[in-house]
Amino acid sequence: MEPSLAVVDRFQRPLRNLRLSVTDRCNLRCAYCMPERDYLWLPRSDILDFEEASALVDVFVDLGVDRVRLTGGEPLVRRNLAELVRLLAAKPAIRDLAMTTNGLLLAEKAKELRSAGLGRVTVSLDTLKPERFEALARSRDHRLVLAGIEEAAGLGFSALKIDSVIIRGVNEDEMVPLLDYGRRVGAEVRFIEYMDVGGATRWSPEKVVARAEILGTLARRYGPIHPLAEPGPAPAERFRLVDGTVFGVIASTTAPFCRSCDRSRLTADGLWYLCLYAARGTDLRQPLRAGASQQELRSLIEATWKGRSDRGAEERLALRDRSPLVARPALQQDPHLEMHTRGG
Ligand code: SAM
Question: Does the beta carbon of 192 lie inside 6 Å of ligand 1?
């Protein structure tokens, strides 16, 4: 679709980029995302099947979405995910079909996903140290994540990225090793500021390693860092080292990109969120299951996007005293407030 024909919100931001969460379940318990012992899960009967998800994606595509990213929870714990990839890859209007994964099951599944038509993969990897991984993510399977990255690196995905959330007192000493690792395996590393999203109940401002500090650390090790001039809605600002290595920084906490944000999120049970920080979503499952026509769904999505004025991360930045976005009792009552339900 011509950009000029895309549906735009109140700030002229187009509806382009859909993050499709396929499950709220995860096989890790990262301290910055799922620190609690118990969670309330979405009822299984509410989870969209692949035909339902695909039908909703058709409506989004019709309105201008051309980039879809599978996420979760952990997308690879959803059974037969390759079937959904096949359905989505068959839609020519989707120019970019990607997945964000924690990598635990990637070595096992990457080949099938690649053949099904998955274009790009981003793996979350915050540490190269197995004992640190165990403390941070409560899993002993760190080697599986590395195996997943290395398997994916050989399969010809159009891009392989590594996303690392940098947290003070946890892994801020690993930026250089992570970048070197990415370079070795042919993956572009992106350093993510710790965000005060729903679920991050242990967040505090002191734990955020800001963009400026990330760049300072890397410049001390690698020398001058050159920003790449890339206008557009991508969340990561990209930089180049003298030797040509490119990396990114996603500074959603200290330098949000709301102004150009074209992303929205569909949860595994069909609630549509216009912002990671939004308090409420629009229920698309209910009308879909009640038999709404494609045109009716289209009108609902179009009208909702046209009314969008969310600037969640910028509003958070403007707060004087910043603390976790949602308190534990509220999270325990409504899983939709969780990052692991909305997809990161
Ligand atoms: N399970 C998949 C994964 O690990 O990539 C996909 C879902 S996960 C919620 C998506 C991304 O959100 C991951 O890269 C994760 O590190 C990031 N994330 C979760 N909580 C975060 C937080 N509080 N601040 C910054 N990033 C966070």
Answer: yes
